[in-house]
Amino acid sequence: MHRIPFIARILDRIAATDYARKAVAEQADLSAFRQPPTFRILSGVFLIGFSYVIGWPAISALAALSVYFREPLLAVIGGPVMYGLSHLTFMAGMYLSGAKYSAVFLRWATRKAVEKFTGKGVH
Where are the domains of the chain? Predict the structure, then answer.
C-alpha cells in the first residue's frame, strides 16, 4: 500500500501509543458482544432509542401545533426544552449501555486499524 508521508507519521505515532500496543498485543476482539445483554444495557439501549422518538419528531410536532394554534412560544420555548430532554435521555442511555461496548469496539477498531495501516501485528 502506498503511504502518504505525513499520514504515515500520524499512523506510526498512533501505533506507538500504549493503548494501541496493548490492543494489538492482547488481540482485542468483539467477544463481549456474544454475552447476553444485562437489564442495565437493555434499559440503556431503550433510552437511546426513546431519545430519538422525543427528539426531532416531537420538536416538529410542537412546531406544527404552534402554527395550528397560532402560539409561537410553543415552538420557541418547547423546541429547545424538548431537544434538551432528548439529549439528556440519550446521555443517560449512553451512560447505562454505551460505555462498556464503546470501549470494546474502540479497542478492536484500533487494533484492526493499526494492523491494516502499519503492517504491524498478527493478521
Answer: 5-118
